[in-house]
Design brief:
The chain has helices at residues 40-47, 69-73, 91-101, 106-119, 135-146, 165-180, 192-198, 216-223, 236-247, 266-270, 287-295; strands spanning 2-11, 14-24, 29-33, 55-60, 63-65, 76-79, 153-157, 184-188, 201-206, 209-214, 227-232, 250-254, 257-262, 279-284. It is of the alpha/beta class. The chain has two domains: 2-215, P-loop containing nucleotide triphosphate hydrolases (Rossmann fold, 3-Layer(aba) Sandwich), CATH 3.40.50.300; 225-284, ACT domain (Alpha-Beta Plaits, 2-Layer Sandwich), CATH 3.30.70.
């Protein structure tokens, strides 16, 4: 459904995408992950034909991009990072007007509205003004709007940003429904739990380069130790230097929290005896641990 080969994009002296290649099969959820400034948005904009790459090849839904971008986008749905709903229209009118951009008649759009609103959990909001909706409702309406043209492939840029846990889980369930219908999803997100739950494969970008790609569980098994013990409190540095480092395969310190990666946590947990002010959380390694190992813990602008 999407093939990207040797993609390069430069702005003046800065090459923001360097030799990026990946392939997304029909029916897959593919996560494109990376810190701020990694090149994710530029890559997606190239894939949609919104900007032209300096070199490389892109095929989207069987069309060559950017040459056939307009034809390709008829088969594509886009959920942007920031909602762009029209405040002058009601919920239903936002769907109808958007559907008209694809050449559908008003009658056809009206027929689609009930099902889309039901899908988004907004069945009783058809005639409500946009400004009366909560942030979560607006986000779900944006997802429904992206489906008005019955797309084969969806590009979703941080679809659950700003949502509370209940709304986030609802969106996750809706995305799983779309995948069960053999639709393809390209997902960018800063929620690693979201990527781990939804994605068949993920690619991690940093400074314009694709540095890892595989199924989430494969990356976790390959890149990090299976158990993480998080130790935090005022004497954590003292404990880490005297006991912790020698008992863990790998350690990282962030603020007052030590992240200890290991295969057998028992001796490490026992080493906390005598440090009553310290607290410890033992958990399985996850995709966020992989992400932080590969891209670092430093803040990015």
């Amino acid at each position: 459904m999407l093939t990207v080969a040797s993609l390069h994009k430069r702005y003046d002296a800065l090459e923001v995408v360097r030799d990026v290649s990946f392939r997304v099969e029909t029916g897959q959820c593919f996560g494109l992950l990376g810190p701020n400034g990694a090149g994710k948005t530029t890559t997606l904009r190239c894939c949609l034909g919104l900007i032209e790459a300096d070199s490389g090849a892109i095929s989207l839904a069987g069309y060559s991009i950017p040459h056939d971008a307009l034809a390709a986008r008829v088969r594509v749905g886009v959920v942007p990072q920031f909602d762009s709903l029209d405040p002058d229209f009601t919920v239903a009118e936002n769907l109808i007007v958007y559907g008209r951009y694809f050449g559908f008649s008003r009658k056809m759009c009206l027929a689609k509205v009930p099902q889309l609103l039901e899908f988004a959990g907004l069945a009783d909001k058809a005639n409500v003004e946009i400004e009366a909706l909560s942030g979560g409702m607006k986000r779900r309406l944006t997802l429904a709007r992206a489906l008005i043209n019955d797309p084969q492939i969806l590009f979703m840029d941080e679809p659950t940003t700003g949502l509370d846990p209940q709304a986030r889980h609802l969106v996750w369930n809706r995305l799983k429904t779309l995948l069960a219908e053999n639709r393809t999803i390209i997902l960018t997100t800063h929620f690693m739990e979201e990527a781990q739950r939804l994605c068949d494969r993920v690619a991690i970008m940093d400074r314009g380069v694709l540095i890892a790609e595989d199924a989430p569980h494969v990356l976790i098994d390959r890149e990090v130790e299976p158990i993480v013990v998080e130790v935090y409190g005022e004497r954590v540095i003292e404990w880490l230097e005297k006991r912790g480092r020698s008992l863990a395969t790998r350690t990282e310190l962030a603020g007052d929290t030590a992240f200890c990666y290991c295969r057998d946590p028992e001796q490490l947990m026992k080493s906390l005896t005598g440090y009553d002010e310290l607290r410890a959380l033992r958990r399985a390694a996850n995709l966020e641990d992989v992400f932080l190992k590969l891209t670092g813990r430093d803040l990015r602008d």
